[in-house]
């Protein structure tokens, strides 16, 4: 039996390298990232809970935002626990099956989040630019179909490259120069012919990012034009404030993913990729609850109502 066959038969065990240059700060980084992770999960869970508990928030926008928050909780939980273990204990072993599973869940949820961002922008476009048609088009059935379509599309697009990844041979180094099992670092460890899977991964990244980005830009461009025609300066200021905060999150998400997945192969820098991945997996999930929901006056009122009900029950 040759080396490739042995590697294919005995599924390899990988080692996640993490951040060896700052491992001496492991306990500090562990504490910081643990607090950020807990804050992110708590914020997103709060959004989900209050959206379903308060009937005033049971609108299409908050349905999409609660779905977005659920995906963000799953997304961060796929990555952060292993990152915390790396900060605390150094390099971490991960089995082949666990690595492939983590890669698939990460890519599936990531793709779904980008499609859902496009849906959120379409929802805002309909609400602001087509208010008369909005209640009819964005009915509960349509909202459920749109979220389901994002999930199905994300799942379908990611099954193929991860399946091809699982069929590659790994006969060299088993150290993944990252803090989780991402597609690119795993492909680079393979001793198989990787040209086809590299082209597929690049094509899928281009399709997902460009499609969601174009939909988002067109939607917000129309929103800005509509806002400029609003008669009240106060209304214009409020609308621009909301849009600008949304653009902060969009810039972080698209910027970090373009930096990681859309660079030419020759310019790949592992340390900078890991930094961009931290922004995508730690920073934006922490900012999203604050920017998209917790700044909203309706949410503030719903929180006050919830606290009042709790006090009355005591």
UniProtKB/TrEMBL annotation:
The chain crosses the membrane at residues 28-50, 62-88, 94-122, 143-160, 199-228, 240-262. One of its GO terms (molecular function) is G protein-coupled receptor activity. Its main location: membrane. Pfam families: 7tm_4. PROSITE patterns: G_PROTEIN_RECEP_F1_2. It comes from the Eukaryota. GO terms for cellular component: plasma membrane. Keywords: Cell membrane, G-protein coupled receptor, Glycoprotein, Membrane, Olfaction, Receptor, Sensory transduction, Transducer, Transmembrane, Transmembrane helix. InterPro entries: GPCR_Rhodpsn, GPCR_Rhodpsn_7TM, Olfact_rcpt, Olfact_rcpt_6C-like. It is a multi-pass membrane protein. Residues 43-292 form the G-protein coupled receptors family 1 profile domain. It is found in: Cell membrane. Belongs to the G-protein coupled receptor 1 family. Putative odorant or sperm cell receptor. This is G-protein coupled receptors family 1 profile domain-containing protein.
